[in-house]
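Supplementary material to the annual report.
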Amino acid sequence: MLFEKKRKLNTNRSKKEGKTHKKTLFAPLFQLLIPIIILALWLGLLPTLATSAVISEDTEWSGSRQVRETVRVEKGATLVIAPGSQLEFIDGHLEVSGTLVADRANFSGANWQGLVLNHNSSETKISDSKITGAQTGILITGGAPQLTGVVLENNQVGIELKQQAKATLDNCSFRNNGKVGLFVKEGSNAIVSNNLFTGNGKFGSYIYRANPERFANNRFTNNEVGLMIAYLGSQPTIEKNQFRDNRIAIHVDRAATPQLLGNLLEANDIGIKLQRRADPLVKGNRLQKNKLGMLICYSSYPQIVGNDFLDNQLALQLEHQSTSWERANGAASREQERIAHGAFGSKKQPVVDTSAQRLKKLDGTIDARNNWWGATESQQIASTGTDGNLPFIHDGLDQPLFHDAGKDYPLDRVRFYPAAQQPQFAESD
Amino acid sequence: MSRSFAIILLCLLLGCSSEQGIEGQLLFQNKPLPGAQLEVYLRSGNERTSTPFSVATSDAEGRYRLSLPAGEYYLVGKLKQQSGGQNRMLMADAPANPYRVSGAILTIPPFSLREMGLGGNLPADPDTWIEGRLTAAGKPVADGFVYLYTEAIDELIGPTYAKQVQADREGNFLIELPAGKYWLSARKRADGSRSGAPQVGDWSGNYPGNPIKITAGEQLHLDEFPLARVSAEKHRQRMASGKFAATDTVIHGRAVDQQGQPLSGVYVYAYLDSRMIGKPSHISAPTGADGKFQLFLTSGGGYYIGARSTFGGPLEPGEWVGTYDGQADHRLTLETGENYGLGDLVLKEVW
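Predicted assembly:
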């Protein structure tokens, strides 16, 4: 307890003096060194060693600083990190239960744990700062912190949102993170806008059983998967984002039901991939110059309306997609999606509201009426009529059957008629 | 004579081969409760071990069935759920504990689990309460959780509490309760959770005046309820006790990815139930950078071995998960006192 008090005392002193002291047994020698150390710090020649574990009163950090143990900002306390500060995390991390204000600061380390913001209010603001080398750059559990212009680079995960966090992420960059740029989980309803996701190893952003309040005007480039939306209970609105040069721009999987509205998907290997009972509304998007505009597979039945499919090598493809298969196997498949599996594969535990998942009336078709397929393609549609086999759509007319578990199933067909007579996509401001 | 002998022999054989054990149904709010655990103990209350003798999991209709040797058993239903970022525990003892199993399947009447900490199982007497204040170094601790136990078991840690309340911003709390004897514990977790093992940096403590006795119509004003931070050393001690305690029956090995690279932060789990569900009987400490683990067991026998990178909860994308695959059913058998080298346990990342 005495040691704890001493630590707090050190923190209070550091607040007043703008730096942190270290305890020493060599007081006389230390007294001689103090002016030299202060001078060196003033000149910015030596990094400060952060030794205080608990910050319980308002404190300001500035300059270069090496953190060698976990620092906790208690509820009620504010840590201000001054512009230009360089924080290097040798060991430990920064965990904030109070308030953090950081502007133009740099947080770095080698596989360090990252910043943890526990139920921070909107008073926590991180702006124009950079976080690198962390396992998770910023873990936000609950609360509503504000992040503007933050660069998350070369972390395993850039930012993870949990526990219904309502953070605001604006104009941030998620670059070259090993796994995920932005992981949105556990009912988080964040506002995610005007951000850049580029070069992330697995996913630019992954929305898992969460529904961001706003997910708009973001740019995704050169990611393995730009945006992943997966699992029943994920039904966010994804609006007016741009996806270029990703392997898969948007991947909807495992019974997620988002609304994809007004997005631009250009020059990706696959524009939109729907898999395993993913039933989104796909409306008002432009899919152009992709190798494959849209891939629909494994019992996914979206609504596709008011989109532009332009200059894709193939506009739309069905794969392992059959109403007959769904009738035969759908109940078991839906049950698997409804439950959460135990870690080792056999646990069944209901964890989400299943009322949204109902068996639909299926007629062996995918509804893709009233889309714009391009000028030449429109002429083809006009000449072939309702039952034409269009070269830019791969469906049951191209491949009547597919084989699964010892049985043949008829591949569904795409209803494309009537088609729109002009482009539908509204350019963003 | 020989005919009678044959009939007797046949009866004996039938008697020996017929299944014996228990079956029944778990409920919550009068509805079947799937995915819950029915834990079987050999003793009750204070004498209960931290590890159940056996565990069954309820099916989609809340039903369970479990083979058991003849004997007397105490049954407890449990289900840990995650909702809104917080954990909750449903739990109840079977009403007519203990139950005697002898030679056949015994049907246990359906019984309902209750949510721990919501007071559903502890109706208060009129005008009867305890109030107090959570403090640390004399200052109030805001928003901590206070847990009321009816038995001094498991060091007042874990979900067996009868009631739970959250202190206000000034650290004040009030618990309405029936007359009786109680033990109080309190925790404030950094992530704001209501449940979960205390971590380094959390606030934790047991009330120094435990146990507290209260009579009907009485209001007790407690002294300050001091909490202390969970230090790294205290956490280490905790991890070295209970189910983490070192024993002479050990499985050791290395957690690796599919390329053979060591994985840190992996827990290795041992289950008695072949389905590998619910609460494991033993858990290792998390692996370090070298991926090495030691899983200490209380005795030899057959265990179903798995490993994952998180400490409980539903499986989420991004987790590392793996099983011991020396046997198809992931079962590993060792003798009491044996130090078993399992080798590499391969995990893969699931998305």
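The longest strand of chain B covers residues 71-83.
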